[in-house]
Amino acid sequence: MKSIDAVQAALAEQNYVCGRALATVVFLSLRLGRPLFLEGEAGTGKTEIAKAIAAALGRRLIRLQCYEGLDAGSAVYEWNFAEQMIAIRAAEAAGGADRDALKTELFTEDYLIERPLLQAMRPQAGGAPVLLIDELDRTDAPFEAFLLEALSDFQVTIPELGTVKASEPPIVIITSNRTREVHDALKRRCLYHWVDYPNFAREIEILQARAPEAAAALSREIVAFVQKLRGEDLFKKPGVAETIDWAKCLLALDVINLSPEVIADTLGAILKYQDDIQKLEGSEAKRILDEAKADLVTA
Question: If 0-12 CB within 10 Å is exposed, 13-18 middle and 19+ buried, where does residue 11 land?
Protein backbone atom coordinates (compact mmCIF):
# COMPACT_ATOMS: atom_id res chain seq x y z
CA MET A 1 0.00 0.00 0.00
CA LYS A 2 2.09 2.87 -1.33
CA SER A 3 -0.38 5.72 -0.80
CA ILE A 4 -3.45 6.75 1.17
CA ASP A 5 -5.59 6.24 -1.92
CA ALA A 6 -4.17 2.74 -2.28
CA VAL A 7 -5.16 2.00 1.32
CA GLN A 8 -8.74 3.13 0.68
CA ALA A 9 -8.91 1.11 -2.52
CA ALA A 10 -7.46 -2.03 -0.91
CA LEU A 11 -9.87 -1.84 2.03
CA ALA A 12 -12.79 -1.16 -0.31
CA GLU A 13 -11.96 -4.41 -2.11
CA GLN A 14 -12.54 -6.11 1.25
CA ASN A 15 -15.92 -4.32 1.58
CA TYR A 16 -14.54 -1.97 4.24
CA VAL A 17 -15.50 1.64 3.56
CA CYS A 18 -13.35 4.18 5.37
CA GLY A 19 -12.77 7.91 5.23
CA ARG A 20 -9.50 9.57 4.35
CA ALA A 21 -8.57 10.31 7.98
CA LEU A 22 -8.71 6.63 8.92
CA ALA A 23 -6.97 5.60 5.70
CA THR A 24 -4.19 8.10 6.46
CA VAL A 25 -3.48 6.73 9.94
CA VAL A 26 -3.54 3.16 8.57
CA PHE A 27 -1.07 4.15 5.85
CA LEU A 28 1.25 5.79 8.38
CA SER A 29 1.02 2.82 10.73
CA LEU A 30 2.07 0.46 7.92
CA ARG A 31 4.75 2.77 6.59
CA LEU A 32 6.34 3.61 9.97
CA GLY A 33 5.81 0.22 11.61
CA ARG A 34 3.93 1.77 14.53
CA PRO A 35 1.05 0.09 16.38
CA LEU A 36 -2.36 1.55 15.57
CA PHE A 37 -4.65 2.35 18.51
CA LEU A 38 -8.33 2.57 17.53
CA GLU A 39 -10.80 3.86 20.08
CA GLY A 40 -14.54 4.38 19.76
CA GLU A 41 -17.99 3.07 20.54
CA ALA A 42 -18.70 -0.64 20.12
CA GLY A 43 -19.87 -1.62 16.66
CA THR A 44 -18.13 1.14 14.70
CA GLY A 45 -15.84 -1.18 12.74
CA LYS A 46 -12.62 -1.20 14.77
CA THR A 47 -12.22 -4.97 14.74
CA GLU A 48 -13.30 -5.24 11.12
CA ILE A 49 -10.51 -2.97 9.91
CA ALA A 50 -7.91 -5.40 11.28
CA LYS A 51 -9.59 -8.22 9.36
CA ALA A 52 -9.71 -6.09 6.22
CA ILE A 53 -6.03 -5.12 6.47
CA ALA A 54 -4.98 -8.74 6.95
CA ALA A 55 -7.05 -9.86 3.97
CA ALA A 56 -5.83 -6.98 1.78
CA LEU A 57 -2.17 -7.74 2.55
CA GLY A 58 -2.59 -11.52 2.43
CA ARG A 59 -1.31 -11.83 6.00
CA ARG A 60 -2.39 -14.06 8.83
CA LEU A 61 -4.68 -12.44 11.40
CA ILE A 62 -3.85 -13.31 15.02
CA ARG A 63 -6.44 -12.09 17.50
CA LEU A 64 -5.94 -11.60 21.22
CA GLN A 65 -9.41 -11.11 22.69
CA CYS A 66 -8.98 -9.22 25.95
CA TYR A 67 -11.05 -9.86 29.06
CA GLU A 68 -11.01 -9.04 32.75
CA GLY A 69 -8.27 -11.00 34.48
CA LEU A 70 -6.21 -11.66 31.34
CA ASP A 71 -2.56 -12.09 32.32
CA ALA A 72 0.75 -12.37 30.52
CA GLY A 73 0.78 -16.17 30.75
CA SER A 74 -2.58 -16.58 29.05
CA ALA A 75 -1.63 -14.09 26.33
CA VAL A 76 1.83 -15.55 25.58
CA TYR A 77 2.00 -19.28 26.27
CA GLU A 78 0.91 -22.18 28.43
CA TRP A 79 2.38 -25.59 29.07
CA ASN A 80 0.37 -28.61 28.02
CA PHE A 81 0.05 -30.09 31.50
CA ALA A 82 -2.07 -33.04 30.35
CA GLU A 83 0.61 -34.20 27.89
CA GLN A 84 3.33 -33.57 30.46
CA MET A 85 1.54 -35.75 33.00
CA ILE A 86 1.19 -38.53 30.43
CA ALA A 87 4.93 -38.32 29.72
CA ILE A 88 5.71 -38.47 33.47
CA ARG A 89 3.46 -41.52 33.96
CA ALA A 90 5.03 -43.22 30.96
CA ALA A 91 8.54 -42.56 32.30
CA GLU A 92 7.58 -43.89 35.73
CA ALA A 93 6.06 -47.01 34.21
CA ALA A 94 9.24 -47.61 32.22
CA GLY A 95 11.24 -47.29 35.45
CA GLY A 96 14.58 -45.70 36.11
CA ALA A 97 13.61 -42.25 34.83
CA ASP A 98 16.28 -39.60 35.25
CA ARG A 99 14.52 -36.69 36.96
CA ASP A 100 16.79 -33.99 35.51
CA ALA A 101 16.58 -35.41 32.01
CA LEU A 102 12.81 -35.77 32.28
CA LYS A 103 12.45 -32.18 33.46
CA THR A 104 14.47 -30.98 30.50
CA GLU A 105 12.35 -33.04 28.10
CA LEU A 106 9.06 -31.81 29.56
CA PHE A 107 9.80 -28.12 29.01
CA THR A 108 10.46 -28.11 25.29
CA GLU A 109 8.60 -26.82 22.26
CA ASP A 110 6.76 -30.16 22.03
CA TYR A 111 4.73 -29.33 25.14
CA LEU A 112 4.35 -25.61 24.51
CA ILE A 113 0.92 -24.15 23.69
CA GLU A 114 1.45 -20.87 21.88
CA ARG A 115 -0.99 -18.07 22.63
CA PRO A 116 -1.53 -15.01 20.38
CA LEU A 117 1.42 -12.84 21.48
CA LEU A 118 3.93 -15.66 21.03
CA GLN A 119 2.36 -16.68 17.71
CA ALA A 120 2.74 -13.10 16.48
CA MET A 121 6.49 -13.19 17.22
CA ARG A 122 7.02 -16.31 15.12
CA PRO A 123 7.90 -16.11 11.40
CA GLN A 124 4.79 -16.49 9.26
CA ALA A 125 4.31 -17.56 5.67
CA GLY A 126 3.59 -14.50 3.56
CA GLY A 127 5.13 -12.00 5.96
CA ALA A 128 4.54 -10.54 9.39
CA PRO A 129 1.03 -11.22 10.71
CA VAL A 130 -1.59 -8.71 11.75
CA LEU A 131 -1.85 -8.84 15.54
CA LEU A 132 -5.26 -7.64 16.74
CA ILE A 133 -5.38 -6.84 20.46
CA ASP A 134 -9.13 -6.45 20.79
CA GLU A 135 -10.91 -4.49 23.54
CA LEU A 136 -7.82 -3.69 25.59
CA ASP A 137 -9.95 -1.60 27.96
CA ARG A 138 -11.35 -4.84 29.41
CA THR A 139 -7.97 -5.70 30.97
CA ASP A 140 -6.19 -4.07 33.91
CA ALA A 141 -3.09 -1.93 34.43
CA PRO A 142 -0.58 -4.77 35.03
CA PHE A 143 -1.40 -6.34 31.67
CA GLU A 144 -1.06 -2.95 29.98
CA ALA A 145 2.41 -2.60 31.51
CA PHE A 146 3.41 -6.03 30.24
CA LEU A 147 2.02 -5.25 26.80
CA LEU A 148 3.96 -2.00 26.68
CA GLU A 149 7.19 -3.92 27.28
CA ALA A 150 6.33 -6.64 24.77
CA LEU A 151 5.47 -4.16 21.99
CA SER A 152 8.48 -1.95 22.66
CA ASP A 153 10.98 -4.64 21.67
CA PHE A 154 8.59 -7.08 19.96
CA GLN A 155 9.80 -9.93 22.09
CA VAL A 156 8.50 -12.17 24.86
CA THR A 157 10.34 -14.30 27.38
CA ILE A 158 9.59 -17.91 28.31
CA PRO A 159 11.62 -18.68 31.46
CA GLU A 160 12.21 -22.32 30.54
CA LEU A 161 13.18 -21.60 26.91
CA GLY A 162 14.48 -18.04 26.80
CA THR A 163 13.52 -14.96 24.80
CA VAL A 164 11.63 -15.09 21.51
CA LYS A 165 12.14 -11.99 19.39
CA ALA A 166 10.18 -11.26 16.22
CA SER A 167 12.41 -11.37 13.16
CA GLU A 168 9.83 -9.12 11.49
CA PRO A 169 7.57 -7.09 13.84
CA PRO A 170 3.86 -7.84 13.45
CA ILE A 171 1.36 -5.23 12.28
CA VAL A 172 -0.29 -4.33 15.57
CA ILE A 173 -3.83 -2.99 15.88
CA ILE A 174 -5.22 -2.28 19.35
CA THR A 175 -8.88 -1.50 19.92
CA SER A 176 -10.73 -0.03 22.88
CA ASN A 177 -14.41 0.69 23.52
CA ARG A 178 -13.32 3.24 26.13
CA THR A 179 -15.06 1.62 29.09
CA ARG A 180 -11.99 2.91 30.94
CA GLU A 181 -8.99 5.04 30.03
CA VAL A 182 -5.94 3.24 28.68
CA HIS A 183 -2.64 4.51 30.10
CA ASP A 184 -0.90 7.32 28.22
CA ALA A 185 2.39 5.40 28.12
CA LEU A 186 0.83 2.79 25.85
CA LYS A 187 -0.98 5.33 23.70
CA ARG A 188 2.28 7.22 23.14
CA ARG A 189 3.75 4.12 21.47
CA CYS A 190 0.89 4.09 18.98
CA LEU A 191 -0.73 6.14 16.26
CA TYR A 192 -4.20 7.06 17.51
CA HIS A 193 -7.56 7.38 15.78
CA TRP A 194 -11.07 7.81 17.15
CA VAL A 195 -13.52 5.72 15.12
CA ASP A 196 -16.81 7.59 15.22
CA TYR A 197 -20.24 6.71 13.92
CA PRO A 198 -20.32 7.40 10.16
CA ASN A 199 -22.42 10.15 8.64
CA PHE A 200 -25.46 9.30 6.53
CA ALA A 201 -23.66 9.09 3.19
CA ARG A 202 -20.84 6.90 4.47
CA GLU A 203 -23.20 4.57 6.32
CA ILE A 204 -25.16 4.14 3.09
CA GLU A 205 -21.87 3.18 1.38
CA ILE A 206 -21.11 0.68 4.13
CA LEU A 207 -24.56 -0.86 3.93
CA GLN A 208 -24.35 -1.15 0.16
CA ALA A 209 -21.00 -2.90 0.51
CA ARG A 210 -22.12 -5.32 3.24
CA ALA A 211 -25.75 -5.87 2.19
CA PRO A 212 -25.80 -5.11 -1.55
CA GLU A 213 -29.06 -6.99 -2.05
CA ALA A 214 -30.98 -4.34 -0.08
CA ALA A 215 -32.96 -1.94 -2.28
CA ALA A 216 -31.73 1.65 -2.30
CA ALA A 217 -34.99 3.00 -0.84
CA LEU A 218 -34.98 0.51 2.04
CA SER A 219 -31.28 1.16 2.74
CA ARG A 220 -31.93 4.88 2.99
CA GLU A 221 -34.83 4.34 5.41
CA ILE A 222 -32.76 1.95 7.55
CA VAL A 223 -29.81 4.31 7.81
CA ALA A 224 -31.99 7.37 8.40
CA PHE A 225 -33.85 5.59 11.22
CA VAL A 226 -30.65 4.30 12.88
CA GLN A 227 -29.03 7.74 12.66
CA LYS A 228 -32.10 9.28 14.35
CA LEU A 229 -32.06 6.51 16.94
CA ARG A 230 -28.48 7.38 17.92
CA GLY A 231 -29.72 10.81 18.94
CA GLU A 232 -32.06 9.31 21.52
CA ASP A 233 -31.21 8.79 25.20
CA LEU A 234 -30.22 5.12 25.02
CA PHE A 235 -27.98 2.99 27.20
CA LYS A 236 -26.32 1.48 24.12
CA LYS A 237 -26.63 3.25 20.80
CA PRO A 238 -26.68 0.96 17.74
CA GLY A 239 -23.40 0.73 15.86
CA VAL A 240 -22.76 0.10 12.20
CA ALA A 241 -22.68 -3.63 12.92
CA GLU A 242 -26.28 -3.39 14.16
CA THR A 243 -27.29 -1.43 11.06
CA ILE A 244 -25.96 -4.24 8.85
CA ASP A 245 -27.56 -6.96 10.99
CA TRP A 246 -30.92 -5.19 10.94
CA ALA A 247 -30.80 -4.77 7.17
CA LYS A 248 -30.14 -8.50 6.75
CA CYS A 249 -33.01 -9.34 9.13
CA LEU A 250 -35.39 -7.11 7.17
CA LEU A 251 -34.29 -8.71 3.90
CA ALA A 252 -34.91 -12.17 5.37
CA LEU A 253 -38.46 -11.01 6.17
CA ASP A 254 -38.94 -9.61 2.65
CA VAL A 255 -39.55 -6.13 4.02
CA ILE A 256 -39.83 -3.43 1.36
CA ASN A 257 -40.48 -0.37 3.52
CA LEU A 258 -40.11 0.38 7.21
CA SER A 259 -43.23 0.61 9.33
CA PRO A 260 -43.79 0.94 13.11
CA GLU A 261 -45.01 -2.67 13.18
CA VAL A 262 -41.88 -4.01 11.42
CA ILE A 263 -39.65 -1.96 13.69
CA ALA A 264 -41.38 -3.28 16.81
CA ASP A 265 -40.94 -6.86 15.61
CA THR A 266 -37.21 -6.49 14.84
CA LEU A 267 -35.92 -4.14 17.54
CA GLY A 268 -33.79 -6.94 18.96
CA ALA A 269 -31.52 -6.66 15.93
CA ILE A 270 -30.51 -3.07 16.69
CA LEU A 271 -31.03 -2.65 20.45
CA LYS A 272 -29.51 -5.06 22.95
CA TYR A 273 -30.95 -3.84 26.26
CA GLN A 274 -34.54 -4.26 27.39
CA ASP A 275 -34.69 -0.74 28.84
CA ASP A 276 -33.78 0.70 25.42
CA ILE A 277 -36.36 -1.48 23.69
CA GLN A 278 -39.06 -0.35 26.13
CA LYS A 279 -38.32 3.28 25.31
CA LEU A 280 -39.30 2.64 21.70
CA GLU A 281 -42.56 0.89 22.45
CA GLY A 282 -45.83 2.54 21.54
CA SER A 283 -45.65 5.79 19.58
CA GLU A 284 -41.92 6.43 20.00
CA ALA A 285 -40.85 4.20 17.11
CA LYS A 286 -43.43 5.88 14.86
CA ARG A 287 -42.22 9.34 15.88
CA ILE A 288 -38.58 8.52 15.07
CA LEU A 289 -39.56 6.86 11.80
CA ASP A 290 -41.66 9.87 10.76
CA GLU A 291 -38.75 12.22 11.54
CA ALA A 292 -36.35 10.01 9.60
CA LYS A 293 -38.62 9.91 6.55
CA ALA A 294 -39.11 13.66 6.73
CA ASP A 295 -35.34 14.14 6.69
CA LEU A 296 -35.11 11.94 3.61
CA VAL A 297 -37.68 14.06 1.80
CA THR A 298 -35.86 17.32 2.57
CA ALA A 299 -32.36 15.91 1.94
Answer: buried
